[in-house]
Specification:
By secondary structure, the chain is mainly α. The chain has a domain of about 60 residues. It has 4 helices and no strands. Helix 1 packs across helix 2 and helix 2 packs across helix 4. InterPro entries: RNA_pol_sigma70_r2. This is RNA polymerase sigma-70 region 2 domain-containing protein. Pfam families: Sigma70_r2 (PF04542).
């Protein structure tokens, strides 16, 4: 039996964080591709923030989760488009 190589603890934490965000996004959206897009968009917002702003975030995982949820649930109502898919919301 071949064992899987052990990842460094920091990398394991990043993989676990991303997996958590993907599961959450999939639960909110119900579409795997859109969920992956939402996670990428959330990370893009994080990494395009100025370093000083990122340093002020006390709990980065909470910020990522909050941003993801807002982008998938609240954002479409406010913007008329979905952060997750970029699709415009239909107006009745």
């Amino acid at each position: 039996m071949v064992s899987e190589p052990r990842l460094p603890s920091a990398l394991r934490a990043v993989v676990a964080e991303r997996r958590l965000l993907e599961i959450l996004a999939y639960g909110l959206i119900g579409d795997r591709e859109a969920a992956e897009h939402a996670v990428r968009a959330t990370y893009a917002r994080w990494y395009t923030m100025p370093p000083a702003a990122r340093e002020r975030v006390a709990d980065p995982l909470s910020w990522l989760v909050t941003t993801l949820v807002r982008g998938c649930v609240v954002g479409p109502r406010r913007r008329g488009t979905c952060l997750c898919t970029g699709a415009r919301r239909r107006r009745s």
